[in-house]
Amino acid sequence: MSTDELIQPKATHVAHEPRRRGLMLLLLLANSSMLAVYMGVGAVLLPTQIAQIDPGDKVAILGIVGGVSSVFATAFNPIAGALSDRTGRRNPWILGGALASLAGLAFLGSVRTVLLVGIGWCLVQATMNVYQAAVTAVVPDRIPPARRGIASALVGLGLPIGGTVGVLIASQTAGRLQLGYLVFGAVVAGAALLLTGLCRDVPRREPLPSVPKRDRLAAFLSALANHDFRWAFIGRALMVLGYFSVVGYQLYILEDHIELPKGLAPTEAMAILTPVSMGAMAVSTVVGGLLSDRWNRRKVFVGLSAALAGIVTTIPVISPTWPGMLCFSALNGLAFGCFMAVDTAVVTLVLPRAEDAARDMGVLNIANAGPQIIAPFVASAVVTALGGYTPLFLIGGALSLLGALAILPIRGVR
């Protein structure tokens, strides 16, 4: 057996081609709704709500709320993934997580203190990551390795589509926060109902063997002992940390750093920048995924896109203007879209064990959520201690460049 065969997990269940197309569209919808919540609420509604409560300390408060809530995201994603592996089903976790998120978002929209906002966002992060863990596991469950690039590209379109829709919804409802939160809850619940209603689970025929409690943590993190998986984890973590250190504070950057045209409010600027960034992201997601499949090359796409993401952060430093921000958003979208699409394909090809796909993808999602724990603290500390947003752009860019280097040691994927 070749090395490639050893490291590439076989899909546990492979759907017929017509069903696979339908499944991919449902996954696109599910991921789009999820990213609409993360981007619309996290980037617009939550910062707006915090600024209304305490405008003087908004940067520090957003850092604390974002960081603490990401602890819940980091914990719940892999735990939910492991539990869905054990039950052999995804749909109950997808639907349950979405409905619980609807309740959490409704609560978040009804509160008016910093403490309750923090509690509400923690609840939303926890329940959305239950949903995310199960949705993420569907690709290695049911899509064969040869089609992972296309599948990952389609799933990756959830960020540009969901991000654009989410920010547009949020920008229109920023003055009516309770309504905005309810709309986002309805979006994710509706997507979950469609996916679980139209795509039946294909349960594992034999349950996983019982594992003693003392061995569960070691088993849970065992994927990190795999050389290729570990470096994919490191690269993803660095890229996400660099990205969210900047993007998570974009509303405040537009308020306090960028020279906006007269009459253009920061929330309106977000509604323009997001489609620019997400449109570029959509193009690079599809092109990157298709070309990486056609050429059977993944690392070059991941490395170059991470390097580009690092370089373009210098644009708002050199030109803190509206045209400069438009240029940065477009190029950053191109870089991040290609990275996430192809890197997801890389990860599915270096999973150590196909039967532990959801658990190991949940571990990888620590590289998504974990840096978001650090990013708000890092960003608020940099802005406060180093005197503004220029150092934040430079540090975010440096982290992305390190993420580009981390792809080089991976041996099992070209």
Automatic annotation (TrEMBL):
The chain crosses the membrane at residues 23-47, 59-80, 92-109, 115-139, 151-173, 179-199, 233-252, 272-291, 300-318, 330-351, 363-386, 392-410. One of its GO terms (cellular component) is plasma membrane. It is found in: Cell membrane. It is a multi-pass membrane protein. One of its GO terms (molecular function) is transmembrane transporter activity. Pfam families: MFS_1. Keywords: Membrane, Transmembrane, Transmembrane helix. InterPro entries: MFS, MFS_dom, MFS_trans_sf. It comes from the Bacteria. Residues 24-414 form the Major facilitator superfamily (MFS) profile domain. CDD domains: MFS. PANTHER family: MAJOR FACILITATOR SUPERFAMILY (MFS) PROFILE DOMAIN-CONTAINING PROTEIN, PTHR23528. This is MFS transporter.
